[in-house]
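This section describes the prediction task in plain terms. A model, or a person checking by hand, is given the sequence of a single protein chain and must write out its three-dimensional structure as a string of tokens. No templates, partner chains or ligands are provided. The sample shown here is typical of the held-out split.
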Amino acid sequence: MRFLTPPAPLGLHSPRMPSFSSDSRPVHTMEPFKRDEGVGGLVTDMSDALPVHVTVVIPTRNEEAAIVDTIRSVPSDGWCEKLDFLIIDGNSSDRTRELAEQEGAQVYLEPRRGYGRAYRTGFAMAPGEIIVTMDADCTYPGEEVPGLVKKLVEEDLQFITCDRLRKAEEGSMSGMHGFGNWALSFTARMLFWYGIHDSQSGMWVFRKSIMENPKMRPTNDGMPLSEEMKINARRCYGKEKAIEISVPYRPRVGEAEINTWADGRKNLIFLYLKRFGLNRTRSPWGPEE
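The expected answer:
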């Protein structure tokens, strides 16, 4: 195992309140996450905390510009019994790991490259019973996490994926990226008839226990893991237990490490391989022994 530091207590900061709308297939509604506020807006009655341990898993590679704000965007005011952050770092050459550690996150250095590889390691390692995923670039709304977890727990759901496309803010996605996301999402809907609007979203909230099901575990070590997660979830749990909710999507902070055309082609090819059962697992689940 390549832990760099043990987890440290999280600092407190003032969160923004959840305000997201629901997806229309099917219609899902959410009540705002309510807090009994004391000094500084922090929770004073811990009986209101959700009785769950939540781990936010974040893959990183050279994200020093945004990793601190990404971690701090998730409220840490006692809304759940325990909250921690697990950073799976792809050998960053900047200060990403150092800054994450300073924020109290647990950091694991993953020598094997790939977005999917980071998550296939992180899902196995996460100590929480509820896993939340986000990119380390401030594009996803961390302030929505308490409400999403609340919905998962109180409605006995298994998996939530967040649709970026309906509420994307101006400048958050170039025209080319927007078209690519639309094309891949449309192709996925036609091939799998699973009703997901945004096949490429990287923000999910789910119960760690679903990964005990081999049919739910994603196989891909690259960007296609994102679309594979949603396909597997709908196949395993259906539209009632695996839902999609629209959330804001914001302009990126820092430089992107993706290759738009190459990743788009890989995603497209994977959809057809998955549809015909030709995708294969190329590396073992979890961290290297």
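For orientation: The first strand starts at residue 3 and ends at 5.
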